Amino acid sequence: MPFTVTDVPNLPAGFTDTFTSHTVKTNDLTLHAVVGGDGPPLLLLPAWPQFWYNWRLVMPALAEHFTVIAADVRGTGASDKPATGYDAATLADDMAALMTALGHDRFAVVGYDLGLLVGYGLAAGHRHRVTRLVVGEAILPGFSPSPPLMSDAATNEFLWHFAFNRLQDINERMVAGREEIYIGHQFTSKAAAPDAIPQHAVDLYVDVLRDPAALRASFEFYRRLDESAQQIQRWHDEGPLSIPVLAIGGEHSTGTAPAEDMRKVATDVTGLVIPGSGHFLAEEVPQALTKALLGFLL
C-alpha cells in the first residue's frame, strides 16, 4: 500500500526502528496509521493537504512518552478514499473505530487544520473516550467568523482556497494534472517562509493527490463544511467540552484565533501562539511544538 512508513522518503534517523504501519478494517473502510512508542495512547490527526507524514518530525520525541498513533483519516495517505463520509461526525467516528481496533479505549488527541475539525468531533461526539485535546490552525465551522467576500488582500490570500475547494467538479478539473501548482502554492504561501517546507515533502503531498480519488476527497472535506457546522452546533448544544484543551496558532498564521474559537465550545482552554511559525506547525517548528505538546500532555 503506497504512502505507508516503508514507502516515504527522508524520515528521521531510526524512525522505522520505532514506527510501523498498521491497517484496520472498520465497517467497509480500511484505515491506515503509523504506530510506535510506549505509554498512554496519543492520536495524531493530519492537516490538509497532508497525511500522517506531516507528524514525522515530532513523533520520535512523543514516542518516548506515549504510544503514538499517527492516523490517515479517510481520503488521505494510505487509507481508503470512498466517495462519501467527509463530514466531521463520520470522520470522528472513523477515528474512534480505529482506536478501538488498535485496543485503545481512552486516549489524548492532537490535530491541526483538518485535524482540529476531526479532533473536536472526537472529543464532543465521544466524550467518554478523549482525555485531552490539542488543536490549532483552523476554523471551527459555525463558530469562527467568516470574512466578507471582498476581504483585504492578505485575508483573501490566506483563505481563498476555502471557496475554491467547496466548488463542485470544476476545481477537480482545474487541478488535475496541475497538482504541483495548486498544492505547491499552499505550502509556499501559508508557511512563514516560502521554502519552510522541504521540496521532497511538498512533492510527496502532491504525489498523493495525483490519485483522482484522493484529489476528490481533499475537496470533499470542504464541500461538507455546512453539514459539519450543523453537527458542531448539535454537539455544542449538548454542553461545552470539559476536558483540558490546548489551542495553538502560528505567529504568522492564525495567531490567537484558535484559542478564541475553542473558548466558545470548551471551558478549560489554554491558548498558545508559537513564534516564527506559519500554518504548518509540525514541520515549521517541530521542536517548539514538541515542547508545547509534552508540557501540556504529561
Tell me the span between the first and last alpha carbons: 34 Å
Chain oligomer state = single chain
Number of helices: 13
What is the share of helical residues? 40-55%
User: SSE order in H/E notation?
Assistant: HEEEHEHEHEHHHHHHEHEHH
Structural class call reads alpha/beta
The total count of strands amounts to 8
Mean pLDDT: 96
| Biggest sheet layout | 8 strands, mixed
Q: Over the alpha carbons, how many angstroms does the gyration radius reach?
A: 17 Å
Strand order of the largest sheet: 1-2-4-3-5-6-7-8
Binned strand content:
15-25%
Globally, the shape reads globular
Report the uncertain regions. none
Account of the protein in words:
The protein has 13 helices and 8 strands. It is of the alpha/beta class. An 8-stranded mixed beta sheet has the order 1-2-4-3-5-6-7-8, with helices on both faces. Helix 3 packs across helix 4 and helix 4 (114-125) runs parallel beside helix 10. The model has no long low-confidence stretch (mean pLDDT 96).
Spell out the blueprint of helices and strands:
Elements: H1 15-18, E1 20-26, E2 29-37, E3 41-45, H2 59-62, E4 67-72, H3 88-101, E5 107-112, H4 114-125, E6 130-136, H5 153-165, H6 170-175, H7 179-190, H8 199-208, H9 212-223, H10 225-237, E7 245-250, H11 257-262, E8 269-274, H12 281-284, H13 286-297
Parallel strand pairs: 3-4, 3-5, 5-6, 6-7, 7-8
Antiparallel strand pairs: 1-2, 2-4
